[in-house]
Amino acid sequence: MTIVSGKAEARRRLQSARSDVLRKMWEHRADYAYVLPAIAVMLIVIAYPIYYTIELSFFNTPPGLQLRDKIFVGFNNYTAILTSGVFWQVTFNTLIWTVASTFFSFVLGFAAALALHRDFVGRGVLRAILIIPWVISAVAASYIWKWIYHSDFGIIGAILVELGWAERPPNFIDSVSTVLPSLIVVNIWREFPFAMIMMTAGLQTVPEQLLRAAKVDGANAWQRFWHVTFPHLRNVSTVTILLLAVANFNSFIIPWIMTGGGPSNASHIWITHIYELAFGRQRWGVASAYSVLLFIILMTLGYFYVRALSGNERKDGSA
Amino acid sequence: MRRITVGGAVLRGAVSTALTISLMSGSALAAPPVDLSKWSPEYVRSIAGTQDFDTAGDCAKVTPLDYKGRLTFWYQGVFEGDPDLLRQYYKDFFATFRKTYPNIQLEEQALTYNDLLDKFRTALLGNAAPMAVRLQILGGTEFASKGYLQPLKPEDVGYSTEDFWPGAMKAVTWDGVTYGIPTNNETMAFIWNADIFKRAGLDPNKPPATWDDVVKYSKQIHDKLGIAGYGLVARKNAGNTPYRFMPQLWAYGGGVFDEAAPSPTYKEVLLNSPQSKAALQASYDMYVRDKSVPVSALTNQQADNQPLFLAGQLGMMISHPSDYNVMLDLQKKATGTDKDKAQTVIDNMRYGLIPTGPDGKRAVVFGGSNIHILKPEYVEGGKVDEPAAKAIICMWTSPEWSLKMAYAGSNPGNLNGFKTKWMKERLDSIKFLDVTTSMLPYGIPFPALPQSPEIMNIIVPDMLQNALTGAMTVDQAADDAAKKVKDLMGGGL
Q: In this structure, are A39 and A128 located in the same domain?
């Protein structure tokens, strides 16, 4: 008797919850109508390509066949990727590229933001100058840096030779050992202004009274930074680092234009390798499998990004 | 014993005579407009300016001049490494076409050599290709084999197959069917700076005879003058690399397959043969052992070598005759003392035949471009305006325009172009043109296979980079490349 009444109670609660959801949806019908066009566009330009990429990752697409004549190979593309030497080389490059670019862009951007947070003459001009690398076209910047680094007639090489510090211009982008660090420097140069802007915005939220109070209590500059400023910047730092990491994982322009992934695959990162597989070699299937793996990694980073943002909102709400 | 009657003999005679006449009058046995067996600079001069052609009149027979239609057209256009003269001819061509066919709405789009294949492939996947396309010689087979192209032969636009180089026709033929018409065919030449040669203690008027000499000369120039000897190019995904390395590979007796043979079968991979390895070793010796070539060769294209040559910082390179005009254009843009220095280099610019291999074998890439018509199902809108497409193809491949559009850097696809007055004018105005026309008989087309773009643009440059960076030994790099080609031909992932 008790069991029967318990089940009935559960059914009643479920029905009540359902009708509650439906009622709320009905009440917000206008809101749904407003977001419907955006959802429709997203389904077309995001959901369908994702579905098609996943489907294509299970097919072989030899150069002599049209894409519609693709051959089903199951998980062979994934197996081929994970067992190929190039995959591990490209993955290692991608990790170095992403971690180094993100870390140094953030540190440099944070340092610049702290320096520019103090009031001094010419601060505005300096801030505007530092933003230049971020606002100029990545394509133009890549070509300029290619000439700066040029292994025979680059400006850095010319200065070093002129000063007698080197006999020959250093080999920046034509050597397997120096090409990736050289490209990372360009990427940091381009990205640190973004971190600087984000951290500058974060610094404006640090309460001035707290810093003054800490000073009155005898805290030195480092202690004020570590115990007052930094805790306030934790969330904006997390978001900045995640955004930089996602952007770096997805980088294409700088390595592709400056080296095309060479020499000898030394500067190939995932995105450039995927591009070459798809458009240079027409291995649409393998390129799609790579893209699916990349998608999973980026979604994981995206999850943490959303969590960090939600954390911010909760804190703001409770404040 | 079988008896032959008079009536039967007459009948057989009549039939065989009729057959012979029909074959001779048909394109199958039509004689080429020029005698390829006599090909020499003197012969080319002797035929130049001997015939007039009425382009509009000829094309009117294919598509009436008052035809009303619409055409979308992509082509490999001029780029930063081309001379201004060629830019002007491209403008003139499209202006003339619009004037000749005022009722055809032409929507043309120029793309660079390195971008065209990627963009065209992507457009095909979305059924958004143009109605007609002019592709580099390397690309035609890939798209024909996939069934994207319509059969198209010179006879379809009023010319004869014999009006075009046999090697060029091979490049537009797949499975016995012709899918395009050559617009221009090119063979490059060897260029050197006589002043640099003299200062390095070399005979200023004598180019290296063999590729081994190139290695020696390059080292001597570098050791004596501290500048780069030979303009090696080894960038990946750039057409410049195979155009410069393949002549070396073939001269040493190597190849990707047997493409250098008179009747290639493309069955056996020869990239790791001793001859191919010897060619790769020569590049290794120049880049790694002697350090006598630009260090930037791995990221450079030929367009990067041109300013080096003009600045007197490079002794030798392989390029088109148009490089002479490019140098003149660049010199005009120079200022102050740079202008005089550039003039000195131009005055000392010399052209010669590309060196031979150790066995006297001379080779050059038989390059160029072809023009094709797409099948309607792959074209934006699902329709192809064939008369409009044939009108532009007829004009571009005419003796007049196939010559003019190749004025400074190449040779006309239509052999009748050599007979025009513009050819005569060109021989008088373009310095060193006779050298590159002399290289034509040594031209070897890239393998007519759908896999060729990947082999030439990725696998071969990868092999070079692997050896030159020390990522692999010469032997390992050649073996690795050969394996990649075998895997590719075997349909591997």
A: no
Tell me phi and psi for residue B138, to 5 degrees.
Answer: -70, -25
- Alpha carbon of B76 to those of A212, B111, B112, B317, B368: distances in Å? 67, 5, 6, 24, 11
Model ipTM? Answer: 0.77
Flag whether A273 is in a domain: yes
Residue B30 has pLDDT above 70, yes or no: no
The mean pLDDT of A204-219, rounded to a whole number, is: 88
Residue in chain B closest to A79 (alpha carbons) equals B493
Domain count, chain A: 2
Cβ contacts of A249-256, under 8 Å, gap ≥ 24? A249/A94, A249/A98, A249/A294, A249/A297, A249/A298, A249/A301, A250/A298, A251/A97, A251/A101, A251/A187, A253/A138, A253/A139, A253/A142, A254/A138, A254/A141, A254/A142, A254/A145, A254/A183, A254/A186, A254/A187, A254/A190, A255/A97, A255/A183
Judge whether A291 is closer than 8 Å to chain B, CB to CB. Answer: no
Residue A165 lies in a domain: no
Same domain, A232 and A132: yes
C-alpha–C-alpha distance, residues B480 and B459, integer Å = 9
More confidently predicted of A280 and A165? A165
**With contacts defined as CB-CB under 8 Å, which chain B residues touch A168?**
295
- Domain membership flag for residue A267: yes
Q: Are residues A134 and A3 in the same domain?
A: no
Q: Are residues A222 and A96 in the same domain?
A: yes
**Residues A105 and A206 placed together within one structural domain of the fold:** yes
Q: Which among A58, A70, A283, A53 has a CA at the least distance from the CA of B451?
A: A283
Residue A207: which CATH number? 1.10.3720.10
Choose among B272, B282, B242, B235: nearest CA to B480.
B272
What's the pLDDT tens digit per position in B67-100?
999 999 999 887 766 778 888 899 999 999 999 9
CB A273 within 8 A of CB A44: no
DSSP β-ladder status, B314-319 and B228-230: parallel
B314-363 tens-digit pLDDT: 999 998 877 887 788 888 888 888 888 888 888 899 989 999 999 999 99
Whether A201 and A261 map to the same domain: the answer is yes
Which range marks the domain in which residue A36 is found? 1-44
Structural domain includes residue A118: yes
Which runs of consecutive H residues, i.e. helices, occur in B126-239?
140-145, 166-171, 194-199, 211-225
Note whether A260 contacts B237, CB cutoff 8 Å: yes
Give the number of A-B residue pairs with CB atoms closer than 8 Å.
Answer: 99
Are B286 and B293 in contact, with CB atoms under 8 Å apart? yes
Overall average pLDDT of the B219-227 stretch: 95
Contact B454 A62 (CB under 8 A): no
Examine the pLDDT at A229 and tell me if it is beyond 50. yes
CB contact under 8 A, A63 and B451: yes
